[in-house]
Amino acid sequence: MDTYNSKDIAAFKNVWVFCEQRQGELMPTDFELLSEGRKLADELGVKLYGLLLGDQVEGLAKTLGGYGADGVIVCESPLLKDYTTDAYAKTVCDVVKELKPEILIYGASNIGRDLAPRCAARLHTGLTADCTHLDIDVEQYKSFLRENSTLDVDGSQWDEGDRNLKMTRPAFGGHLMATIICPKFRPCMATVRPGVMKKAPFDAAKSEAVEIIRPAFSLQEEDLETKVLAVEKSARKLVDLIGADVIVSVGRGIASDIEGGIKIAQDLADELGGVVGGSRVAIDSGWLASDHQVGQTGKTVHPKIYIALGISGAIQHKVGMQDSECIIAVNKNSAAPIFEVADYGITGDLYSVGPMLLEAIREAKAAK
Prior knowledge:
Rossmann fold; seven-stranded parallel beta sheet
């Protein structure tokens, strides 16, 4: 292995995505990140590789190729079957030091949030956590700023040849969006929130053409400080906000009749084949479990239909749902920020408007 120097920027090339698998099953976030990584690699004119760790997981590589990877770097060992911080961190760092990617992206899952900072520290580089937007090309980044900021983009000086990864994330409790770069070290590393990147269609031809790379790495029992004795799955079924086509969310507006407000939301969700979500207030107040939370500190979603009942629309919530295809907002306050992103806004009491919406939906379905 050549001497590793994170400051030798010219020695680093290609975009990598850490592809998380659990018990031999790929996570949906892998496909989102590969689709986004494909765009970044094309802008840089380099290749995109998936980094896959586990035991007997090479068979998953073709699926990753179908979502954009030119190749998949496969590290297999019985010691990698179940995730442990020390085994995965050592393996990832050893492979990065050998092959030197210029960008490495992780999903901001429990595993990604544990693994990425440890790797960044060992590799002597930076890490931007919980990103919601990534850019390389300066013109594309300026277009993003025009749509999402009040900055005077055209009146500023820009280095059009800047190849740094521009990593944007919410800051100061979601009241600001900050863009961070890592100009002096490589690889540029980021964790990306699940659900914020759009998955590209599966390409069967790319799946068959994907290259498999098996790097040499060393992993022994003595390298592990912990050992997984058993994996126990929770019996409680969590709500799938990210995969839902319809989400009906409730907020502070149901405070006067919590059970009644949640019932209205559940009835609407059941009629539309969706699930119930909630704002941070609804979760912090104990009205709904944490897996129902939509927003900066919850899930980022983009369903086909998002109905907001009694949600004012603080920036922390809007950043998690503003990319939904159709947003319907119901709020008594006509100046509520939620109406800024709504396709249809209804000023009124959710306890009156909700049942009316439910009846209208049932009538429309019956008429078909």
